[in-house]
Amino acid sequence: MCMATLTETAYYTRKTINWLILMVICYFILRLFWSVFAALWLYFFPPKAPPPNHRFGKLSAVVFPPQATSSAKLTFRLETIEGTVPRASESAAVYFMPKQPANLLALPKTQEFAQKLEFDQTPIAESKNIYRFDDPILTLRKLKYDIVSSHFILRYGFEQDTGLFSDHVFPGLDALKADAIGQLQGFNLWEGDVKAGSQKVTFLKLVSDQLVTTTSLSVADAVRIDFFRKDISGVKVFPPNPDEGPVTVIYSGALAPKKQLIEFAYSLWPIDYSTSGTYAVKPATLAWQELQSGSGYIARFPRAGTTAVVRNIYLGYYDSYDPQTYLQPIFVFEGDNGFIAYVPAVAREWVE
Questions:
Q1: Element (H, E) at 327
Q2: How confident is the model at residue 23 (pLDDT cuts 50, 70, 90)?
Q3: C or N terminus of the chain, fewer CB within 10 Å?
Q4: CA-to-CA distance for 303 and 332, rounded, in angstroms?
C-alpha cells in the first residue's frame, strides 16, 4: 500500500510539473502574440492626437530676412522617396519666447562685460539699446552690445588688416573648441540650449577681403565654430542661415593675442519650454505649392545651377535673429547641392 501511494504521488507530481511547464510556455506565446497584435493595431489604426488648443490665439506671421536673390529664379523638382509630398503631422507645438525689459543695471553690467574683454568702458550709444565699446589700442577691434536682449558681437575689422592672416598658428581643433567653450563659460553663457546643442567647425580662407569656406585646416586662414540650439522633442531648430548658429566664434592663426579672436557673436533668444500651445499645421502639399510660387525662404541656394531638386520634407522650428514672441514650426525642404528652404507651417487661419 505504501509503495502504491509513493508511486501515485510521484506520478501526479510529474504530471503537475508538466502542466506547469506547459502553462508557462503558453503564457509566453500568448504574450508574444498579444504584443505583435497590439503593435500591428497601433500601426494600422494609430490613436488620434488631441485637437490643437491654439492657446495664444492668432500668431504673428513668421518674418524671414530679405533675400538678395529671388526664389523665382529657381525651378523646383520633387524627388522624394515616396514620389509625392509626404504627409505631415496635423498639429505642432508653439513655444513662448519671453523678452527681458530694460533695467537700470543693464548698462553697468554691459560695461563690466566690456572690461573683461579689454575694451574701454566708456559706452558710445549707437541707438536706444545698442552701445559700442572701442579697444583703446587696436582701433579695428570693437564690441557692440544690446543692453535689452544681451546680444553682442565682438569683431576685429580684418578687412583693413589682412596681414594678420600671414600667420597660421592654430593650436588644434580640440583646443579651439575648448577655448570657445571657455569664453562662453567665462560669461555664464555655457548653459541651456547652447550647452545641450551641437557644434560645427568650418574652415575659412581669405579671398580678397572676404572669408569663404575651404576644405581643411592646412589651407585655412581662420576657423569658425558655430553653436546650435538643442533639438526640441526630436525636432531641429533652424536659424536663417543653417550654416551659422546663434553663437559664433571665429579664430585667426595670428600671433597677436587680440587678433586671434576676430569674431565672437551671441544672438540667442530664450525659449520658455513650460509655456506652449498646439496649433493646426497646413498640409505639406500646400507648403510645397507656396514654395513653388515664391512664398518660401531660400536658406541655402543650390551650389550649382538653377534647379532645386527637393528630396526631403519635414517639420522644424524657425529661430529668427530678430525678436519673435513665439517659436513657430516651419516646413523644411532639403535637396541636392546643399539646397534648403523654409515655409511657415502654422495653418493660415491662425496667423495674423
A1: strand 326-335
A2: confident
A3: N
A4: 18
Is residue 233 predicted with pLDDT exceeding 70? Answer: yes
Find the mean pLDDT for residues 34-45.
78
Cell representation of residue 185: 563659460
Cross-strand partners of 341: 298, 333
- Could you identify the residue written with the cell 524671414? 64
Cell of 159: 578687412
* Count of beta carbons in the 10 Å neighbourhood of residue 248: 19
% of the chain surpassing 70 pLDDT: 95
Q: What is the pLDDT of residue 332?
A: 98
Listing DSSP states for 179-203 in one string gives HHHHHHHHTT-SSHHHHHS-EEEEE
Question: What counts of helices (H) and strands (E) characterise the chain?
Answer: 5, 17
Residue position matching grid coordinates 544690446: 146
| Concatenated DSSP letters of 239-304 | -SSTTS-SEEEEEE--SSGGGTEEEEEE-----EEEEEEEEEB--HHHHHHHHHTT-SEEEE--SS
Q: How many other CB atoms sit within 10 Å of the CB of residue 259? A: 21
pLDDT average, residue stretch 336-344: 96
Q: Round to whole Å and give the CA distance between 269 and 320.
A: 9
Q: Please give the mean pLDDT across all residues of the chain.
A: 91
pLDDT at 1: 46
Please tell me which residue, 166 or 101, carries the higher pLDDT value.
166
Residue 209 CB partners (closer than 8 Å, separation 6+):
158, 159, 162
Which three three-digit cell numbers place residue 147? 543692453
Q: What is the mean pLDDT of residues 307-319?
A: 96
Q: Which helix (H) or strand (E) holds 37?
A: helix 2-44
pLDDT band at 71 (very low <50, low <70, confident <90, very high): low
Contact 203, 223 (CB under 8 A): yes
Contact present, 229 and 193 (Cβ < 8 Å): yes
